[in-house]
Queue: 3 jobs
Job 1
Amino acid sequence: MFARQSLSRVAAQTSSALAASRGGARNMATLREIELRLKSVRNIQKITGTMKMIASAGLAKAQRAMVAAKQYGDANAEVFATSDEVSEGKKLFVVISSDKGLCGGIHSSVTKATRRAFTGVESPLGSTVIEEDTPIMIIGDKAKAQLARVHAKNMRLTFNQIGRDVPSFADAASVADLIITSGVEYDSVVIVYNKFMSAISYEPRAIEIKGEKALAASENFKVYEMEDDFTRDLAQFSLANAIYSALVEGHASEISARRNAMDNASKNATDMIGSLQMQYNRGRQAAITNELVDIITGASAL
């Protein structure tokens, strides 16, 4: 009888010890997972913090370039202010984004504006009707990937590796030259880009640049004596001006959006580190308490 009681007592102690060991193993595994996740989040926080500092340093440079490039856009506005308004004819869309990510929804804004222009719902061009077969040319791989899902048949040319640094007029002139020599017929070019509003906001905008035929047919230009190549050269130069102004302003908007995105990511990482650290401390305290209970239980059994 006493032997059976002793055996049952030993079995109970053994099972409790096994359960405690299993619980301790689970706690150790959980603590190890939390520790690894803490290390990963801290590394990500370092990366996002560094990217934020780089974007902050580049934003001042991009804003200076944007202010200088606005003179090109103002010159275009003065030229087209003296020409007749032409809302009909074939149009060519040029969508401006970049190849880089980690900057929030800045690329989605121009692609959404382009899709709205084709559907006519809240179009950036107002009541202007866009034909379904209107050609599209895209600067930047990010917008290309998004528009290829809906308007793959409309895409004619795509450009990349533009705007890795502050865009130059040579970049814009090269793009304009390829557009003109592409063989795509158009009466006007619609440029969709992100307009820099402030260091924390931007808006998608669309500007329309008249082509050579529209300028030659304008009554305001016919009153002047001009050479035959004047309207062609003016249309080409105006297109390059507009593309350059949009590229620089879009670049400033991208840098600003990247800085804000990395700032938000760093703040989220800080909050996550605090939450994980508290969870780790509680788990470690529970593991220590369990070990103390096991030691006291073993000592009392002896």
Job 2
Amino acid sequence: MTAFIKQEAIEKAREIEIKANEEFSIEKSKLVREETDAIDAAYAKKFKQASMTQQITRSTVANKTRLRVLGARQELLDDIFDEAAKKLAEAAKGKDYQKVLKGLLLEGMYALSEDEVAVRVRKADNDVVKKAAKEAETEYQKETGKSCKVKLDEGNALPEGTSGGVFVVGGNGKIEINNTFEERLRLLQSSALPAVRKALFGPNPNRKFFD
């Protein structure tokens, strides 16, 4: 009887030990899985943060590079038009200056379509603009069948610092057409800039729409 009880106790103890070992293994696996999941989550978070940091860095570098390139391009374009502005005065010294003034006068005369217009020029251009005005009056009448008198406004001469060209005034002094060399270059800079940029740097791959 004693041996039987002892054997039962041993078997019971073995069952308890087996069950405890199973529960320990289960708990251990659970803890290992939780720790593994936590490590994986932490790694994924750090990897995501590293990727985002890398993307931000790349984007920042790309933007800075792009801005430097754009700045250099704009500086080159500015230099081109600055150089052109320096050479404007040379056009007023050329043999075709009278012809140029006639063309600028005619533009104003056609635009205003009046019987008389006033013209303002530099004092240095008074003599040559008088000759150009005579030619412009003749051509205007020939082309339109109407006469238009060009009167030199000597009391309001353009500043001597002006490179050349004319101001054509109509509408009893209320309408002014600025046909000075500086204004024409400014208009050219605005209208021709896209073509100049394309000629220097090639077409913009990011541009989707064209005029």
Job 3
Amino acid sequence: MTTMRDLIVGPDTPTPPYPILVEGTVVEGFGRGGKQLGIPTANLPSSVVDQALENIPIGVYYGWAQVQDDIVRPMVMSLGWNPYFKNEKRSGEVHIIHEFKEDFYGKNMKVAILAYIRAEKDYTSLEAL
């Protein structure tokens, strides 16, 4: 299966309501990102997802993230229900584009959401996901 995707998304500079800045302690998710999909994610606590991100659309975003005092790195974030997995609660899963040597559960993470990429999708198979 071949999928064509745009190489560049979003404006050169953020436009309102962006940037959206959120911060929280990294919590354990469903254990699918790194283990099942090979795309590790740092999960935002439900308080951040339910309060700070309650008014933005479900979907995929891009921006920057920082864990503790590490350097700021590019990220993509999935905000939604993960329909393929039939989640019963909305989650905010941040994939920081960097290979970390260890988990950082319990560490503070700051996220700057710069723009919306696309709506959440429901996939027909794990391979399509």
